[in-house]
Amino acid sequence: MIRADNLARQRANIYRWFACMLFQELSVTDIASLNSPELQQLLRGLKSIPELRLSTDLFRNKIKALINRPDNHLELAADYAELFLMPPPTGVSPYAGHYPHSSPAEERLLMSQWLKHVKQQTGNNEAADHLAVQLAVMALLIESHHDQPSDFISQHEYLRDRLLSWLPGLVKLCVLAHMPRYDVVTDVHYTMALSP
């Protein structure tokens, strides 16, 4: 039986890993770490969730294919830039405020309040409504609050209000953009968020 604190640590690590993966282009070192025992353990944990089994297998296959390509860092950097740095309709915005449910100002204000709640602030002049920032906050919520029923309610409300309100739109746009290395990442994360 997995202890609650170990499960919380695994969940937090998964959210943190997704945040790193979606924050910026992966370096050569980051790509090499995709084959690390730590990541493989996280993926096994994801695969143990029935709703994530298929997406996780697909993601693992994409990682294997990527690692075996000679210029993998250049291909992945190009995909990241085209997907997340180009304006729509070519690119896909990783900012919650760019989706119909809200506005950039409203999303940034709400996320700034969450950042204060977890005693954090964004770095690198990143807007608070960036997907990676929101995932990092979820990791912090899990780490700092994981043993009381009210903690799970708080995490669920955060997922519902801050991520699930706009993540389906991002996943759909990633799939339509035909960037298979990233659409599977957003799909795994979205499915994980639906089954906390």
TrEMBL record:
Keywords: Chaperone. SUPFAM superfamilies: TorD-like (SSF89155). It comes from the Bacteria. The keyword rRNA-binding does not apply. This is Molecular chaperone TorD family protein. It comes from Limnobaculum eriocheiris.
